[in-house]
C-alpha cells in the first residue's frame, strides 16, 4: 500500500514551513492589481557596449563645449569667441595630458591610487617659480612669460624625470617602488624648500607668485597652443600604437614578459611619456594634482572594459567634459569662474581620501 505524502506548506527562505500558506498568493494577487509600468525595448535595456559609451560621453562633451562657446555672449562676439576658443584649446591639452597621463601611470605602476604628481612634478614646478621670484624679483616672473620659458620649464622637468628613471632602473636594486619612494622624498624636499623661500618674500611678491601656483585655464596664451597640440599629437600616436602593450602590462611583470613584452623597456618609455605630458601640462596651465585622478577613476567605472583602446579615449572625453561643463556652470550660473580648479582639487582630494579609506591601503 503506497502512501503519497503531500507537504502542507512550502519551505520558506529560512528552511522552515511558512506559517501562512496563502500569503504568497495574496501578495501575487495584490501585485497583479498594481498599475504596470511600460517596459523599455530589449535593445535599450541591454548593456551598453564600450563603443556606445564613448559615443554618449562624446556627445555630452560636444554639447558642453558648444554651450560654453556660444551661450551668454555679452558684448562683442569677435572679442569673446576667440578668447573662449583659446580656453577650449587649453581644456583639450589639460584633459589629454592629465587624463591619459594618469591612466598610463596607473597601468605601469599597477596602482590606481597613486598619481603622476607623486614623482614630484608639482613640487618641482612650485620650486622653480619660487626661485625665480626669490632671486630675480616679482616683476621678472611676469616679464619673462613666453614660449621659451614654457619650453625651458618643460624640458627641465622632463630631464629631471628621465635622469631619475635611468638612475633608479639601471641600478642593481632598481625597482618601480624605489622610484615612487624617491619621488615622494624629493617632492617633500622641494615643498619644504619652497615653503621656506615663500616665507622670505614680501607680500607683493607672494601675491604675484600665488597666481602661478594655481591651475589657470583662462591665462593660457593662444601662441602656446600650436606647440602644445603638436606635442600631444605625437604622444597620442605613440600611446595609441602601444595600447595593446598597455593591456599586457596590466597582467603584471611576469605575465607580460611571458607573452613577449619587454617590461623594462615599455615601463621606461611610458614613464618618460607620462613625464612629458604632466610636465607640459603643469608648465602650461599650472599644477592640478587631483584632476587626473578624478578623470581616470571615472573612466575606469564608465568605460565598461579594461582595454586601453576604450579607457584612454574615455578618460580624455571625461576630462574635457568636466572642464567645459564646470567652467560653463561656474562662469554663468555661480559667477565664480576662477574657482573651477580649486573646486576640482577639493573634490579630487575628498575622492582620494575616500578610496584610501575604503581600500585601507595604497
From TrEMBL:
GO molecular function annotations of the record: transmembrane transporter activity
Q: What is the name attached to this protein's record? A: Iron complex transport system permease protein
- Location of this chain's protein in the cell: Cell membrane
The UniProt keywords, alphabetically, are: Cell membrane, Membrane, Transmembrane, Transmembrane helix, Transport
Compositional bias of type Polar residues: which residue ranges?
1-12
The UniProt transmembrane annotation reads 54-73, 85-105, 125-143, 174-193, 224-241, 270-298, 310-329, 335-357
Looking up InterPro entries in the UniProt record yields: ABC_BtuC-like, ABC_transptr_permease_BtuC
Q: How does it sit in the membrane?
A: Multi-pass membrane protein
The primary location reported for this protein is membrane
What is the native source organism of this protein? Answer: Sanguibacter gelidistatuariae
**Region listing for Disordered, in residue ranges:** 1-20
Which Pfam families does the UniProt record give?
A: FecCD (PF01032)
Task: State the family named in the UniProt similarity comment for this chain.
Answer: Belongs to the binding-protein-dependent transport system permease family. FecCD subfamily.
